[in-house]
Write a structure and sequence with these properties.
Elements: E1 10-14, H1 20-31, E2 38-43, H2 45-48, H3 53-64, E3 68-71, H4 79-86, E4 91-94, H5 106-117, E5 121-123, H6 131-134, H7 141-154, E6 160-165, E7 168-169, H8 170-173, E8 181-182, E9 187-191, E10 197-201, H9 203-215, E11 223-226, E12 230-233, H10 234-245, E13 250-254, H11 256-265, H12 270-278, H13 292-296, H14 303-310
Parallel strand pairs: 1-2, 1-4, 2-3, 4-5, 5-6, 6-11, 7-10, 9-13
Antiparallel strand pairs: 8-9, 10-12
Helix pairs in contact: 1-9, 4-5, 5-7, 11-12
Length: 312
Protein backbone atom coordinates (compact mmCIF):
# COMPACT_ATOMS: atom_id res chain seq x y z
CA UNK A 1 0.00 0.00 0.00
CA UNK A 2 1.25 3.46 -0.80
CA UNK A 3 1.87 5.99 1.93
CA UNK A 4 -1.19 7.52 3.54
CA UNK A 5 0.48 10.87 2.91
CA UNK A 6 1.83 10.40 -0.61
CA UNK A 7 4.18 12.90 -2.17
CA UNK A 8 2.25 14.11 -5.21
CA UNK A 9 4.58 15.39 -7.91
CA UNK A 10 2.80 14.34 -11.10
CA UNK A 11 -0.89 14.88 -11.82
CA UNK A 12 -2.79 13.68 -14.90
CA UNK A 13 -6.09 15.34 -15.75
CA UNK A 14 -8.40 13.36 -18.02
CA UNK A 15 -10.07 15.63 -20.56
CA UNK A 16 -9.93 19.30 -21.51
CA UNK A 17 -13.59 20.02 -22.17
CA UNK A 18 -16.28 22.00 -20.38
CA UNK A 19 -14.97 21.02 -16.94
CA UNK A 20 -11.48 19.85 -17.80
CA UNK A 21 -10.26 23.26 -18.97
CA UNK A 22 -11.37 25.12 -15.81
CA UNK A 23 -9.71 22.42 -13.68
CA UNK A 24 -6.53 22.61 -15.77
CA UNK A 25 -6.41 26.39 -15.46
CA UNK A 26 -6.94 26.30 -11.70
CA UNK A 27 -4.44 23.47 -11.16
CA UNK A 28 -1.90 25.34 -13.27
CA UNK A 29 -2.26 28.43 -11.08
CA UNK A 30 -1.70 26.32 -7.97
CA UNK A 31 1.25 24.51 -9.57
CA UNK A 32 3.13 27.81 -9.89
CA UNK A 33 3.41 27.75 -6.10
CA UNK A 34 4.84 24.21 -6.19
CA UNK A 35 7.73 24.08 -8.69
CA UNK A 36 8.11 20.30 -8.31
CA UNK A 37 4.50 19.66 -9.36
CA UNK A 38 3.98 18.69 -13.00
CA UNK A 39 0.51 18.81 -14.57
CA UNK A 40 -0.37 16.74 -17.64
CA UNK A 41 -3.59 16.24 -19.60
CA UNK A 42 -4.83 13.20 -21.50
CA UNK A 43 -6.13 14.01 -24.99
CA UNK A 44 -7.19 11.86 -27.90
CA UNK A 45 -4.47 11.71 -30.60
CA UNK A 46 -6.47 13.87 -33.03
CA UNK A 47 -6.83 16.56 -30.36
CA UNK A 48 -3.22 16.31 -29.25
CA UNK A 49 -1.90 16.68 -32.82
CA UNK A 50 -4.33 19.28 -34.15
CA UNK A 51 -2.66 21.82 -36.44
CA UNK A 52 -5.54 24.29 -36.83
CA UNK A 53 -8.94 25.33 -35.53
CA UNK A 54 -10.33 25.21 -31.96
CA UNK A 55 -8.37 22.07 -31.02
CA UNK A 56 -5.09 23.77 -31.96
CA UNK A 57 -6.11 26.90 -30.03
CA UNK A 58 -6.81 24.75 -26.98
CA UNK A 59 -3.49 22.96 -27.33
CA UNK A 60 -1.71 26.32 -27.52
CA UNK A 61 -3.43 27.42 -24.31
CA UNK A 62 -2.34 24.23 -22.58
CA UNK A 63 1.25 24.94 -23.66
CA UNK A 64 1.02 28.47 -22.22
CA UNK A 65 -0.23 26.98 -18.95
CA UNK A 66 2.80 24.71 -18.84
CA UNK A 67 0.69 21.55 -19.14
CA UNK A 68 2.16 18.52 -20.88
CA UNK A 69 -0.03 16.52 -23.28
CA UNK A 70 -0.35 12.74 -23.05
CA UNK A 71 -2.08 10.87 -25.86
CA UNK A 72 -4.72 8.27 -25.13
CA UNK A 73 -8.34 7.39 -25.83
CA UNK A 74 -10.63 6.65 -22.90
CA UNK A 75 -13.19 5.00 -25.13
CA UNK A 76 -10.94 2.96 -27.40
CA UNK A 77 -8.20 1.95 -24.96
CA UNK A 78 -8.85 -1.00 -22.64
CA UNK A 79 -8.09 -1.27 -18.93
CA UNK A 80 -4.54 -2.57 -19.52
CA UNK A 81 -3.61 0.23 -21.91
CA UNK A 82 -5.09 2.94 -19.69
CA UNK A 83 -3.43 1.45 -16.63
CA UNK A 84 -0.06 1.63 -18.39
CA UNK A 85 -0.70 5.33 -19.11
CA UNK A 86 -1.81 6.11 -15.55
CA UNK A 87 1.08 4.26 -13.88
CA UNK A 88 3.46 7.20 -14.43
CA UNK A 89 1.36 9.56 -12.33
CA UNK A 90 0.91 10.10 -8.60
CA UNK A 91 -2.60 11.50 -8.98
CA UNK A 92 -5.39 11.42 -11.56
CA UNK A 93 -8.29 13.89 -11.79
CA UNK A 94 -11.04 12.57 -14.06
CA UNK A 95 -12.80 15.35 -15.98
CA UNK A 96 -13.87 13.14 -18.88
CA UNK A 97 -17.61 13.61 -18.41
CA UNK A 98 -20.11 10.95 -19.43
CA UNK A 99 -18.07 9.96 -22.50
CA UNK A 100 -19.68 7.10 -24.32
CA UNK A 101 -23.05 7.57 -22.62
CA UNK A 102 -25.13 5.16 -20.60
CA UNK A 103 -24.39 1.47 -20.78
CA UNK A 104 -20.75 1.87 -21.81
CA UNK A 105 -19.45 1.37 -18.24
CA UNK A 106 -16.61 3.71 -19.20
CA UNK A 107 -16.28 5.33 -15.77
CA UNK A 108 -16.03 1.87 -14.24
CA UNK A 109 -13.30 1.00 -16.78
CA UNK A 110 -11.35 4.18 -16.01
CA UNK A 111 -11.59 3.53 -12.27
CA UNK A 112 -10.41 -0.06 -12.70
CA UNK A 113 -7.43 1.22 -14.69
CA UNK A 114 -6.57 3.80 -12.01
CA UNK A 115 -6.70 1.16 -9.28
CA UNK A 116 -4.71 -1.36 -11.33
CA UNK A 117 -2.05 1.30 -11.97
CA UNK A 118 -1.63 1.89 -8.24
CA UNK A 119 -2.23 5.63 -8.55
CA UNK A 120 -1.80 7.20 -5.11
CA UNK A 121 -4.69 9.67 -5.31
CA UNK A 122 -7.79 9.75 -7.50
CA UNK A 123 -10.55 12.31 -8.09
CA UNK A 124 -13.14 10.31 -10.09
CA UNK A 125 -15.75 11.77 -12.43
CA UNK A 126 -18.36 12.25 -9.71
CA UNK A 127 -18.96 15.97 -10.28
CA UNK A 128 -22.70 15.69 -9.87
CA UNK A 129 -25.32 14.52 -7.40
CA UNK A 130 -24.94 12.41 -4.26
CA UNK A 131 -25.12 8.93 -5.77
CA UNK A 132 -24.98 7.29 -2.33
CA UNK A 133 -28.24 8.93 -1.31
CA UNK A 134 -29.87 8.49 -4.70
CA UNK A 135 -28.98 4.79 -4.85
CA UNK A 136 -29.90 2.56 -7.77
CA UNK A 137 -33.07 2.72 -9.81
CA UNK A 138 -33.21 6.52 -10.10
CA UNK A 139 -34.40 6.33 -13.70
CA UNK A 140 -30.99 7.46 -14.97
CA UNK A 141 -28.75 4.44 -15.84
CA UNK A 142 -25.58 6.56 -15.87
CA UNK A 143 -26.16 7.29 -12.19
CA UNK A 144 -26.23 3.55 -11.42
CA UNK A 145 -22.79 3.27 -13.00
CA UNK A 146 -21.54 6.19 -10.92
CA UNK A 147 -22.65 4.40 -7.76
CA UNK A 148 -20.70 1.32 -8.85
CA UNK A 149 -17.57 3.49 -9.14
CA UNK A 150 -17.98 4.39 -5.46
CA UNK A 151 -18.29 0.72 -4.56
CA UNK A 152 -15.04 -0.04 -6.39
CA UNK A 153 -13.18 2.74 -4.58
CA UNK A 154 -14.45 1.74 -1.15
CA UNK A 155 -13.60 -1.92 -1.70
CA UNK A 156 -9.85 -1.16 -1.80
CA UNK A 157 -7.33 0.74 0.31
CA UNK A 158 -4.28 1.27 -1.94
CA UNK A 159 -5.58 4.35 -3.77
CA UNK A 160 -6.83 7.33 -1.80
CA UNK A 161 -9.84 9.00 -3.39
CA UNK A 162 -11.77 12.24 -3.10
CA UNK A 163 -15.23 12.77 -4.58
CA UNK A 164 -16.33 16.35 -5.27
CA UNK A 165 -20.13 16.60 -5.27
CA UNK A 166 -21.18 19.70 -7.19
CA UNK A 167 -24.82 19.28 -8.17
CA UNK A 168 -25.54 20.02 -11.82
CA UNK A 169 -23.69 22.50 -13.99
CA UNK A 170 -25.49 25.82 -13.53
CA UNK A 171 -26.15 26.28 -17.23
CA UNK A 172 -27.96 22.92 -17.45
CA UNK A 173 -30.73 24.06 -15.11
CA UNK A 174 -31.58 26.79 -17.62
CA UNK A 175 -31.04 24.67 -20.73
CA UNK A 176 -34.20 24.17 -22.76
CA UNK A 177 -33.31 20.50 -23.17
CA UNK A 178 -33.65 19.93 -19.42
CA UNK A 179 -37.21 21.26 -19.63
CA UNK A 180 -37.36 23.12 -16.31
CA UNK A 181 -36.93 26.71 -17.48
CA UNK A 182 -38.74 27.59 -20.71
CA UNK A 183 -37.74 31.13 -21.67
CA UNK A 184 -39.89 31.21 -24.78
CA UNK A 185 -43.09 30.44 -22.87
CA UNK A 186 -41.97 32.17 -19.67
CA UNK A 187 -42.62 28.94 -17.81
CA UNK A 188 -40.91 27.17 -14.92
CA UNK A 189 -41.65 23.48 -14.36
CA UNK A 190 -41.10 21.89 -10.96
CA UNK A 191 -39.85 18.30 -10.92
CA UNK A 192 -41.86 16.27 -8.42
CA UNK A 193 -42.74 19.02 -5.94
CA UNK A 194 -42.32 22.78 -5.64
CA UNK A 195 -40.47 22.18 -2.34
CA UNK A 196 -37.84 19.95 -3.95
CA UNK A 197 -34.49 21.63 -4.49
CA UNK A 198 -31.50 21.35 -6.80
CA UNK A 199 -27.84 22.23 -6.20
CA UNK A 200 -25.84 23.79 -9.03
CA UNK A 201 -22.29 25.03 -9.63
CA UNK A 202 -20.57 26.57 -12.67
CA UNK A 203 -17.68 24.66 -14.28
CA UNK A 204 -15.40 27.62 -13.53
CA UNK A 205 -16.20 27.42 -9.82
CA UNK A 206 -15.87 23.64 -9.85
CA UNK A 207 -12.40 24.00 -11.37
CA UNK A 208 -11.29 26.56 -8.80
CA UNK A 209 -12.76 24.66 -5.85
CA UNK A 210 -11.47 21.27 -7.03
CA UNK A 211 -7.95 22.69 -7.10
CA UNK A 212 -8.45 24.14 -3.61
CA UNK A 213 -9.68 20.75 -2.36
CA UNK A 214 -6.78 18.95 -4.04
CA UNK A 215 -4.20 21.15 -2.31
CA UNK A 216 -6.05 21.55 1.01
CA UNK A 217 -4.15 20.68 4.16
CA UNK A 218 -4.83 18.52 5.99
CA UNK A 219 -5.57 16.49 2.88
CA UNK A 220 -9.03 15.09 2.20
CA UNK A 221 -8.84 11.30 2.05
CA UNK A 222 -11.43 8.73 1.06
CA UNK A 223 -14.37 11.07 1.45
CA UNK A 224 -17.05 13.07 -0.33
CA UNK A 225 -16.58 16.84 -0.32
CA UNK A 226 -19.64 18.96 -1.10
CA UNK A 227 -19.52 22.27 -2.92
CA UNK A 228 -22.30 24.50 -4.29
CA UNK A 229 -22.74 27.69 -6.22
CA UNK A 230 -26.39 27.71 -5.19
CA UNK A 231 -29.15 25.52 -3.83
CA UNK A 232 -32.72 26.55 -4.51
CA UNK A 233 -36.17 25.01 -4.55
CA UNK A 234 -38.25 25.02 -7.71
CA UNK A 235 -40.50 27.59 -6.05
CA UNK A 236 -37.49 29.82 -5.45
CA UNK A 237 -36.40 29.23 -9.04
CA UNK A 238 -39.80 30.35 -10.32
CA UNK A 239 -39.58 33.48 -8.18
CA UNK A 240 -36.08 34.15 -9.49
CA UNK A 241 -37.18 33.82 -13.11
CA UNK A 242 -40.18 36.04 -12.50
CA UNK A 243 -37.90 38.77 -11.18
CA UNK A 244 -35.43 38.20 -14.03
CA UNK A 245 -38.05 38.28 -16.79
CA UNK A 246 -40.15 40.97 -15.16
CA UNK A 247 -43.38 39.16 -15.98
CA UNK A 248 -45.66 36.67 -14.24
CA UNK A 249 -44.31 33.19 -14.91
CA UNK A 250 -46.35 30.12 -15.72
CA UNK A 251 -45.77 27.56 -12.98
CA UNK A 252 -46.26 23.93 -14.00
CA UNK A 253 -45.83 20.98 -11.64
CA UNK A 254 -44.57 17.78 -13.25
CA UNK A 255 -45.42 15.15 -10.66
CA UNK A 256 -43.68 11.78 -10.43
CA UNK A 257 -46.44 9.94 -12.27
CA UNK A 258 -46.32 12.32 -15.21
CA UNK A 259 -42.52 12.13 -15.38
CA UNK A 260 -42.61 8.31 -15.30
CA UNK A 261 -45.13 8.34 -18.14
CA UNK A 262 -42.84 10.59 -20.20
CA UNK A 263 -40.00 8.09 -19.82
CA UNK A 264 -42.26 5.17 -20.75
CA UNK A 265 -43.59 6.99 -23.81
CA UNK A 266 -40.19 8.33 -24.89
CA UNK A 267 -37.62 5.74 -23.76
CA UNK A 268 -34.80 7.32 -25.77
CA UNK A 269 -35.34 10.85 -24.45
CA UNK A 270 -32.34 11.60 -22.23
CA UNK A 271 -33.97 14.76 -20.91
CA UNK A 272 -37.04 12.82 -19.75
CA UNK A 273 -34.83 10.42 -17.80
CA UNK A 274 -32.98 13.29 -16.15
CA UNK A 275 -36.22 15.04 -15.20
CA UNK A 276 -37.45 11.87 -13.52
CA UNK A 277 -34.13 11.35 -11.73
CA UNK A 278 -34.19 14.88 -10.29
CA UNK A 279 -37.78 14.60 -9.04
CA UNK A 280 -36.79 13.67 -5.51
CA UNK A 281 -36.44 15.30 -2.08
CA UNK A 282 -32.87 14.18 -1.41
CA UNK A 283 -29.55 13.38 -3.04
CA UNK A 284 -29.68 16.13 -5.67
CA UNK A 285 -29.43 19.12 -3.32
CA UNK A 286 -27.63 20.08 -0.11
CA UNK A 287 -27.38 23.13 2.12
CA UNK A 288 -24.86 25.57 0.69
CA UNK A 289 -23.98 26.73 4.22
CA UNK A 290 -22.44 23.31 4.94
CA UNK A 291 -20.26 23.13 1.83
CA UNK A 292 -16.48 23.32 1.56
CA UNK A 293 -16.60 26.68 -0.21
CA UNK A 294 -18.91 28.19 2.42
CA UNK A 295 -16.72 26.96 5.28
CA UNK A 296 -13.63 28.34 3.53
CA UNK A 297 -15.32 31.67 2.80
CA UNK A 298 -14.84 31.18 -0.95
CA UNK A 299 -17.48 32.91 -3.05
CA UNK A 300 -19.24 30.90 -5.75
CA UNK A 301 -21.64 32.00 -8.47
CA UNK A 302 -25.32 31.89 -7.54
CA UNK A 303 -28.13 31.17 -9.99
CA UNK A 304 -29.09 34.85 -9.93
CA UNK A 305 -25.53 36.00 -10.61
CA UNK A 306 -25.20 33.52 -13.48
CA UNK A 307 -28.48 34.76 -15.01
CA UNK A 308 -27.35 38.37 -14.74
CA UNK A 309 -24.09 37.52 -16.49
CA UNK A 310 -26.01 36.05 -19.44
CA UNK A 311 -28.08 39.15 -20.11
CA UNK A 312 -31.57 38.89 -21.58
Amino acid sequence: MKSTNPSINTVLILGAGELGLPVLRAMSRQARLSPSLKISVLLRPEAARAVSGPLRARRDELARLGIAVVEGDLQQNGVEALSALFRSFDAVINCSGFVGGAGTQIQIKITQAVLQAGVARYFPWQFGVDYDVVGKGSGQPVWDEQLEVRHLLRAQSATEWVIVSTGIFTSYLFDSGFGVVDAERKTVRALGDWRYAVTLTTPEDIGRLTAAIFFHRPAFRNQVVYIAGDTLTYRELADLMQAHWGVEVNRVLLNKERLQAEVRNHPHDVGAKYRLAFARPDGVAWDKANTFNARQGMAATTAGQWLASQGG
